[in-house]
Each structure stands twice: as C-alpha cells, then as structure tokens.
Specification:
30% of the residues lie in helices and 18% in strands. The protein is an alpha+beta fold and 129 residues long.
Length: 129
C-alpha cells in the first residue's frame, strides 16, 4: 500500500513538471516581439547654440541663475546678486549665509545645469572610518 502511495506521488510530481513545461512553452509563444533598439543620438557641444545659457567660468558662475538646495529652488533675486557678475563658490556661500541659510556654513560644492540655468548646491559629507 505504501508503494502505491509513493508511485502515485511520483506520478503527480511528473504531471506537475509537465504542466509547468507546457505553460512555459505557451508563455514563449504568447510573448510579443521586442522592438529593435533605436540608436541613441550622440550630442556634441557646439559653439553655435540657439539657446541662451548662463556662461560658467573656471573662477565661478555668472548671475542670473537659480539656486537649488535641500529639495527646492531658493529665490535669490533679492539677495544682492548683480546681473552679469561672476561669483565664486565662497562668495555664493557667504551671501547665502548672510541671508540666514545656515546649511551653507559647511563646505559646499556647486554644479551648474545649463539646460535649466540652475546651480545645485551640495554639502560635503564627512564620514568616519
């Protein structure tokens, strides 16, 4: 009697495996054809750009720009920045400190996103270990 039970369990497992195999084959047959990948366009920087961008120099950033920090854009239009003037990282940090943005007290790094004309400020992370 025990032998019949074992044979029956083995047959049931075999049927389950066969069912899974059939389902896999059905899924393969039903799969939609994948569209061929399109070639990515390669963009090169040219001096003849149609969009007016804020020029950045190695010494700093030319105002007007937006300043993004801590998840939002800070309105710096009345902070004393002058149009067309170049500001270094330290000058920007000092102006922001003068207007009670205390997150600029540490060492800040800046990255300019020219498409949006936005300057992103990031505080330096100090890690132990």
């Amino acid at each position: 009697m025990a032998i019949d039970f074992i044979k029956m369990m083995q047959q049931e497992q075999k049927n389950t495996k066969d069912d899974k195999q059939v389902k896999k084959e059905e899924n393969v047959a039903e799969a939609k054809p994948v569209a061929p990948k399109q070639d990515k366009k390669i963009y090169s920087k040219t001096s003849n750009s149609s969009k007016a961008k804020t020029p950045t120099t190695e010494n700093g950033y030319v105002y007007p720009f937006s300043l993004y920090t801590e998840g939002h854009i800070v309105d710096v239009s009345n902070y004393g920045f002058e149009d067309g003037k170049t500001y270094t990282d330290k000058q920007i940090s000092q102006i922001m400190l003068d207007h009670r943005h205390y997150e600029f007290a540490g060492e800040m790094t800046y990255k300019m996103f020219e498409d949006d004309n936005t300057l992103v400020a990031t505080a330096k992370q100090y890690k132990k270990g």
